[in-house]
Specification:
Family: Belongs to the iron/ascorbate-dependent oxidoreductase family.
Order of helices and strands: EHHEHHEEHHEEEEEEHEEEEH
Protein name: Oxidoreductase
Strand order of the largest sheet: 1-2-10-7-12-5-4-3
GO molecular function, one term: oxidoreductase activity
Shape: globular
Number of helices: 8
Radius of gyration: 19 Å
Pfam families: 2OG-FeII_Oxy, DIOX_N
Largest sheet: 8 strands, mixed
Structural class: alpha+beta
Number of strands: 14
InterPro entries: DIOX_N, IPNS-like_FE2OG_OXY, IPNS-like_sf, Oxoglu/Fe-dep_dioxygenase_dom
Helix content: 10-25%
CATH superfamily: B-lactam Antibiotic, Isopenicillin N Synthase, Chain
Length: about 325
């Protein structure tokens, strides 16, 4: 469980940008401390060639497409004639509950991965789908994916050392990695709804675009826009706002990283408040990157506790609880 905290810590990762190995031991300890306490932090000075404005612009270029164009890329559970199941577009799902208020577009590795031998109808390595007749943002989105994958690999080497493992401990996780870059758009809600930066509360008036959850994987890197809305739960159960900090990424770990650490690291519960129209007339944009191991990667605790899991089997089991996939496997 996360500790008590009033705000998320800030970690300067300029050492990764400037290739300063002498600073990495201190950075390793700092990151491990964060993963042991809050499970979340802001990263400043990340080694990316993209500004925040460009990342959000790329996302908006997709979401301004007409709905029929986006639905040609929809996952099969939303458009039964489409072949794609794991990658592609999903629309808002208000009929599934008032807290399912987001649309998204999911992108996997730019290169084609070998298809695994499995009887599952969900191919985790299926190729990406893109709008027809070319899509100008595609090359830049593929580059963003590649840069975030590289950053995730650099970051993973740091807690590995703090856990008493060699820096290349997570290299096996990088083989045929199935990481996902997700573009998200949270539509506006009633102007009378509370501001995302108002005092934390669990009163019924709080409207959510994303319900409380922990991430299921290893590591998440998030671009969030100035609208705000992200909240992280501390150990007493208070929801702590994680407002936008210009130029920063939010990093957090998922259930599998907590497992790898032998429960030393914590996967912290978080949620997203729906953006009010007065604050975000076009809605909220966020762009999370989920680092995911390869299909056959064996995930086990460094201290030998608990049962090891194969990543492909783990994620398929989790998907049975996700609305967008419940009609696919059966």
């Amino acid at each position: 469980m996360a500790t008590t905290f009033a705000s998320l810590p800030i970690i300067d990762v300029a050492a990764l940008r400037h290739h300063a190995p002498q600073q990495l031991p201190e950075l390793s300890q700092h990151l491990a401390q964060v993963f042991t306490t809050t499970g979340f932090a802001y990263l400043t000075n990340p080694p990316l060639s993209f500004s925040h404005d460009e990342v959000f612009h790329l996302a908006r270029e997709f979401f301004v497409l007409p709905l029929p164009a986006k639905m040609t890329l929809a996952k099969r559970s939303f458009q039964t004639t489409n072949p794609n199941v794991y990658r592609g577009y999903f629309p808002t799902q208000p009929d599934q509950g008032s807290d399912n208020l987001k649309e998204g577009f999911e992108i996997g590795p730019p290169t084609i991965l070998p298809a695994p031998s499995t009887s599952s109808t969900i191919d985790l390595s299926e190729p990406n789908v893109w709008p027809e007749q070319g899509f100008p943002p595609r090359p830049r989105l593929e580059q963003l994916y590649t840069e975030l994958q590289t950053l995730a690999a650099q970051l993973l080497s740091l807690p590995a050392v703090a856990l008493g493992q060699p820096a290349d401990f997570f290299d096996a996780y990088l083989v045929d990695s199935l990481s996902t870059l997700r573009l998200l758009h949270y539509p506006v809600v009633n102007p009378a709804d509370p501001s995302p930066d108002s005092a934390p509360t669990d009163t019924p008036e709080v409207k959510l675009s994303c319900t409380p959850h922990t991430d299921s994987g290893i590591l998440t890197l998030l671009h969030q826009d100035p609208t705000g809305g992200l909240e992280v739960r501390d150990s007493p159960g208070q929801w702590i706002p994680a407002p936008y900090i210009p130029g920063s990424l939010v990093v957090n770990i998922g259930d599998l990283m907590a497992k790898v650490s032998g429960a030393r690291f914590v996967a912290t519960m978080h949620r997203v408040r729906a953006p009010p129209a007065t604050r975000a007339p076009l809605g909220r944009i966020s762009v999370p990157f989920f680092f995911e191991p390869g299909e056959k990667c064996l995930v086990s605790s460094v201290d030998g506790t608990g049962e090891a899991v194969v990543y492909g089997e783990h994620v398929r089991a989790k998907m049975q609880t996700w609305v967008e996939y419940q009609a696919v496997e059966g």
